[in-house]
Design a protein that fits this description.
By secondary structure, this protein is α+β, with helices and mostly antiparallel strands. It has one domain: Sandwich (Jelly Rolls), CATH 2.60.120. 27% of the residues lie in helices and 19% in strands. Strand 11 and strand 12 form a beta hairpin. Helix 1 packs across helix 5. It is globular. The two termini are 34 Å apart.
Length: 334
């Protein structure tokens, strides 16, 4: 299965034919796969590398446990902020097929630590920073947040065109910002551990928001569901070293709800690198990824939009706010 790779700069073209063709192909990829890869996405390469494996990012996860505990995310049904240790959340609980023999998933584990930040200046759910140890991290991530937010709005505007929705139908539901950046670190893990049936780098799941933007390093491991063979997965191959970065974008739960299942969220997981497939012993190397969970404004409804509700396809989801939905789903993780 070949995941489409599209040139995002075409949507900025002053030629309507190019814009419309790009938007059409974007929506087709989301319909067929729940995913797409974008080149010429507009995020500077220096920033991509800063998010992935710069000294700042690596130093964040190299902090001692005392420093990490100062900025630890408190488990609960609320937007996540700060550092979370391995196993803090259990993505296996988000997808029933991960659970066996009536298990509630408590014995399953994600071999991943991560750091979350929300909108700069968020008063309701303040961000947490290792200001003493890494004083420049805040400015780097706040700059990244604004660029990723703008890019997400452009992608959603392209989806409006591809779906032939009135301009602003989706974009207006994304302001003010309520999205989150996540930095992931997957420490080295043995294949024996990752094959024991209880531990994965990340279990199959879908995300909560509208769309998710992701950059991954060269180690790889991200896999998406092959919808022609449900619950089988194919790798999302990282770009070649030295080439401009590719932005991976997937549809998330809020968008599936808005479209009343017309466009479904992309099921995905993080598995071992391709080079280690089929092996039973060995050590998976460190892996880093950076994610932007693009979410609806907190008081916006995540119920189905009128354009997607018909007699043949009645509303499948309740009319709750984006914040209520996030709280509902985050509670499941813990």
């Amino acid at each position: 299965m070949d995941l489409p790779t599209l040139d995002f700069s075409l949507f900025a073209s002053d030629r309507n034919k190019e814009r419309n063709q790009f938007a059409k192909e974007l929506v087709e990829s989301f319909l067929n796969h729940g995913f797409v890869k974008l080149t010429n996405h507009g995020i500077p390469e220096t920033l991509v590398q800063a998010l992935l494996r710069s000294p700042k990012t690596k130093d964040l996860f190299d902090l001692d446990i005392t420093a990490k505990k100062k900025i630890e995310n408190l488990k609960g049904p609320h937007p996540q902020r700060g550092w979370s240790c391995k196993g803090a959340e259990v993505t296996a609980k988000l997808y029933k097929k991960n659970l066996h023999n009536n298990s509630n998933g408590d014995e399953l584990k994600d071999e991943r630590e991560f750091f979350d930040m929300g909108p700069p200046g968020d008063c309701l759910y303040p961000n947490k920073w290792p200001s003493e140890e890494l004083p420049s991290l805040k400015s780097t991530l706040e700059t990244s947040y604004r660029l990723l937010h703008d890019t997400s709005l452009q992608i959603v505007a392209a989806i409006e065109v591809g779906l032939e929705l009135p301009s602003g139908t989706l974009v207006q539901r994304c302001i003010p910002a309520a999205s989150e950046i996540r930095l992931n670190h997957y420490p080295p893990a043995s294949l024996e551990l990752l094959n024991d049936g209880k531990s994965k780098r990340t279990w199959p799941h879908t995300d909560f928001g509208i769309i998710t933007l992701l950059f991954q390093d060269q180690v790889g491991g991200l896999e998406l569901e092959n919808r022609t063979e449900p619950y089988t997965f194919v790798p999302v191959i990282p770009g070649k070293p030295g080439d401009p970065s590719e932005l991976v974008v997937n549809i998330s739960d809020t968008f599936q709800r808005w479209t009343n299942d017309v466009i479904r969220a992309g099921l995905h997981r993080v598995d071992v690198p391709i080079s280690m497939k089929g092996k039973t012993t060995g050590l998976c190397p460190d892996r880093y990824s950076s994610i932007y969970f693009f979410k609806a404004a907190r008081d916006t409804s995540v119920g189905p939009l009128p354009a997607f509700v018909t007699e043949e396809n009645p509303a499948k989801y309740d009319d709750i706010t984006a914040l209520q939905f996030q709280q509902q789903m985050t509670k499941i993780l813990y």
